[in-house]
Amino acid sequence: MNTEQKPLQQRILDAMSRDSYRPLKRRKLATLLGMIADQRDYAQFKLTLGQLVSQGLVVKKRGNKYELAERANTLVGLLTVRGTNYGFVNPQGRSGIVEIRRGDFGTAMHGDIVEVEITQVAGPETAAQGKVVNITRAGKRRTVGTAVKTRFGMFFIPIRGGVFPEVPIDAVKGKKLKHGELVTVEFIRERYDTYRASVVERLGHASEYSSTIEAILRAFEIPGAFPSEVSREAKNAAQKPVDEKGRKDYRELVTVTIDPDDAKDFDDAISIEQLKNGGTRLYVHIADVADVVPRGSVLDEESRRRATSVYLPGFVVPMLPHHISNERCCLRPQEDRPAKTVVLDYDASGNRTNYSVHRSMIRWTNASTINRHCRRWREARQRYIPRTDRHVSMLLRAAWSLAGKAARQEDGQGFAHARHARYKGSP
Fold it and tell me: Which residues contact 4 (CB under 8 A, 6 or more apart)?
């Protein structure tokens, strides 16, 4: 096949695959391929070369020279920084990560596409390690922090300390910045690999609650309102009737939530039964979100993107819309809810003898939480316990007894021991 008829990507890769090839800058590489004379050809060449870099097939090395990724001892990928001492790169077109230690970031920042030189290959249980040798493409380089007045002028202190640098702030037009003011800045690179911060938005003072919450959400890129199609799907899903077919019915069991009193939603609960052989059966329930969130739906994709609910003082950013997190999948007193239940059997000594997992239907017995019951008993041990609470009282006493037995089966440092010690003094 004539080289002129080959796709441009293949022509570039073939040229780089020759034994005589040495890393070249972009214009020299274009000259080698005869694509420098015509301006339209050169524009197409630049676009295609950039695509090869983005695909991880070609790397841009020091001095802006290009080489095949398989020949270079380097990888290209997205840099993610976590604190002052650690970051990692997700290589393009490959699995796994490359860890970047403190001092090996160079001038790269969180969100940059970087070229990484491998300094230590991956082991059976350890990730590869490397250092940043080139910034292939700078990220957005915007973040949120506080303007701090020093004797050297105004400095920017990022909320995500260690991820972004502390640098001088450019003078702003209009009203002067105040010490403690929250701002969004864009980093501007200067000579000698230093940076300065240019203010692009002023969010208010750090002493103001609303400004602080907004700054935190922006700094950690926490999503706010749900897209309209997600909210619409959540509302429709919450109205769908529960299909009880194939579910175990545990609604007659006494069930108490184990979420804290100030939880924004209640979705965890326990039940306990005493067995005839002297053992105990523990039921651990959690709301069955999968019942209303179909795999692959826009609701599923949005919850994957958010990963978790984020709790801030007096404020929560939910993983799922209100119709699901605070209604359909939230436990309510004397209301039936679909759940996933783990059933654990223990003998009289506290050894676990069996377990099983089921799709189930449960019912929260009353509006009190486990912590609230324990406090009530501590405050009035001798007082009459209302009939509606007696079954709950028996459940929690059985739970306390089981926790003590299980703790004795641990080595003194186990989870059960720690949890039991935490509730020291409970009935």
Answer: none
Q: How far apart are CA 128 and CA 105, in angstroms?
A: 15
Please count the helices (runs of H) and the strands (runs of E) in the chain.
10, 21
Exposure string of 26-50, with b = 16+ CB inside 10 Å and e = fewer, is: beebbeebebbeeeeebeebeebbe
Cα–Cα distance between 423 and 412 in angstroms, integer?
A: 16
pLDDT top residue among 379 and 57: 57
Reduced to 3 states, what is the DSSP secondary structure of residue 267? coil
- For residues 148 and 183, the answer to whether their CB atoms sit within 8 Å is no
Answer left, alpha or beta for residue 350, where phi above 0 means left and psi between -120 and 50 means alpha.
left
By CB atoms closer than 10 A (0-12, 13-18, 19+), residue 81 is buried
Closest CA relative to residue 205, chosen from 188, 187, 222, 182:
182
Q: Burial of 362 by CB count in 10 Å (0-12 exposed, 13-18 middle, 19+ buried)?
A: buried
Is 0.85 surpassed by the pTM of this model?
A: no
3-state secondary structure of 27: helix
* Residue 208: exposure state from Cβ atoms within 10 A (0-12, 13-18, ≥19): middle
Handedness of CA 308, 311, 312, 316 (dihedral sign): positive
Which pLDDT tens digit goes with each residue over 143-186? 899 999 888 888 888 888 767 778 888 877 767 888 999 999 98
